Fold this protein.
Amino acid sequence: MSFLQVQGLGKRYGDAVALEDVDLSVRAGSRTAIVGRSGSGKTTLLRIVAGFETADRGRILLDGRPLVEAGTMVPAHRRGIGYVPQDGALFPHLSIADNIAFGLERNDPTRRTRILELLEAVELDRQMLERRPHELSGGQQQRVALARALARKPALMLLDEPFSALDTGLRDSLRRTVARVLCEADIATILVTHDQAEALSFADQVAVMREGRLTQAGPPQELYHRPRDRETATFLGDAIILPAEVENGWASCSLGRLAVAGGPRRGAAEIMLRPEQLRLVVDHDHAANGGDGGSMGWGRVVDVEFGGSVCKVAVTLGNAPGQPAPLLLRHSSMDLPRIGSRVRIHVQGEAHLFDTPLS
Amino acid sequence: MLAVTSLVAALALMPLTFVVWITVQTGWDTVVELVFRRRVGELLGNTLLLVLLTLPLSVVVAVTLAWLTERSDLPGRRFWAWLAVAPLAVPAFVHSYAWVTVAPGLHGLAAAVLVSVLAYSPFLYLPVAAQLRRLDPTMEDVAASLGHGPWRVFLTVVLPQLRVAVYGGCLLIGLHLLAEYGLYVMIQFDTFTTAIVDQFQSAYNGPAANMLAGVLVLLCMGLMGGEALLRGQERYARVGSGAARQAAPTKLGRATLPCLVIPLLFAALSLGVPMLTLGRWLAIGGARIWQGADIGSAILQTVALALAGALLTTLAAAPMAWLSVRAPGRLQRVLEACHYYVGSLPGVVVALALVTITVRVALPLYQTVGTVLLAYMLLFLPRALVGLRASIAQAPVELERAAMALGRTPLQAVRQITFRLAAPGAAASMAMVALGITNELTATLMLAPSGTRTLATEFWALTSEIDYAGAAPYAVMMVAASLPMTILLHIQSKRAAGR
């Protein structure tokens, strides 16, 4: 049963299309990440759900109640939807305590205890309460912004790139805190981000937006391994995309014959592999296997980039026609091949076949 | 920098020192006799009532106009924004000249408050509108998501963040109310300043005038203390990172028509009345009032004095503005108070001090252009300072540090980053000063070398002879001269807010 339903949402700014025919559904208590490049319409979608902007077309239902429908629009302050913006937007003229309590009734007898509970939930110290927002660090400000949004126990929480202004370490720890707090409170959450790693690790549903359209939505694993098209594939992570000839569940390509997932298609197509599916084996005994293409790819190392735990090795395929760009493969820092050496490439799992036929 | 600031502050203290010195010379018994009398009580009541009624009304007018022009979808809001600033181009005493013509029976407190609000509320409109543009609209979004309706969001989120702008504007208006002379003489409302001028004219620099000036200085110090107390430690810069999104204008819907009446009424009263009156006097006067070489030379002299004075004043105010933003402290506050108080003195007190000092100490300087410029600098220091301080507060110190990290010397960093960012504000404050000088009356009359004829002094001379038609061309000239500066001011204030 979906808790939030967005149906056929459309929005234009003059001639520019911001959203076109967007459908999205969010289950109660789940976490959804909307990911896309800047200008893809993800923030506009979030702002329409929050009620800060109006849609031109479409419907939004929250728990069966229409928020946006032809001719009617529930104003933001009557939606009961929490919102955490990019930079927190704490009220500079109020103390931290007053910021957190902003959404509470002024004469609520439980006000003080509520503030302390919320402060504890977002792992902040009590000494913060009397400070002003500018005396806090960016991460602390974001925690306060979250506590403030939680105070009214919203049914849905919208996070508009709340981690993007923070540095990496802080970002991860804050993301985990936010995920935990929202999970404990059983609040459905929509996170907007341009960072695909953040989206994949945070959400149980990822929705990819491009040019105002929602191109694909689903569990992170599915999107990562079975993206609908090339753009989505490369947006969600490094991808190796190769031309292939497909027949009966097998693809012939420069890496040899690979099993492909997907229907009984045949003919020329593009297949996708994630770099972690490919494993390099340093071929010490190349003289004996010289010229043996077989079902396994082989190639020559043209560049090695040391990167700590994971290093990158550029390989040109030996049996590829012409001189295509080298593949960038990952390799452990142990046993790195030398430039110029011959390597074998093992492929694990199936290759993915894009839905769209090759044009 | 502290040395320059101290020198300016010392110069600024000169009129006060003069008042104290005269007080000591007069003797305590005479002082008591002159200060604690019914006349002073009346003047005090008048002046306080004027301030207490004008300020709240101006705040209401300015905030309403600023919100309508900046945050609503009022038809033609750009146009109305111009009209909200335009009354600055009409000198205060021309406002009252117009109102006296329209309604000859108009005088007393109500008239004083009416004309003051019309003439001075742009001083509040400008900072409030600029602050409204600067506010991060995300904050209002958040407040709405926390269950606050639009009206409550305005009261709890928007209004409190306008505080600093409102206090600054109120201080400026308050100082003008205390110092203005011409406006209140024309509508026959006695304040300390008009009483001092009366005293001075009847008995040169007699002790009575000086004692009244002493009380006036105390009043203005009270005003400044109040502003400082209210402003406290409020931070100017926006919390958080990233560029603020532009606020979507509030749709007025059915309220559009009633809302349109507000700026229309304000424009009709603050601009329509002076324009109609001037038009009428010009029509009555015909070609006669434009004849003679006086007008041309008055324009040239006014422009020269205004430009020289504005430059001098801005340069003199810059070090103080810098210190008060970047290194606030007790000493800086005292120095700043010195800068402010002097501008609130009526021109006649500053002029009186300079007359006495030049005559007794440096006779060659008596009635020279240098003395007039010095008087302008002292009188308009607060104007320059308010604008400069706000614009320097716009350039956070972090940017300067970043520039130094990129290999700039501190001086280069200040010049390339802070001055660059503060330039619009500096230009605005120069315009403010030049505007003030164009319309300055009393100090010019008393200090300028004989033969100096500015637009203001000629206007005043003619209205004093009840030649209202003859005065009209000078009023038109003053308005015309102030217009470009008002336009500049409006544009710069927008640019300073990042649009």
Summary: DSSP finds nine helices and 21 strands in chain A. Chain A has two domains: 2-228, 238-353.
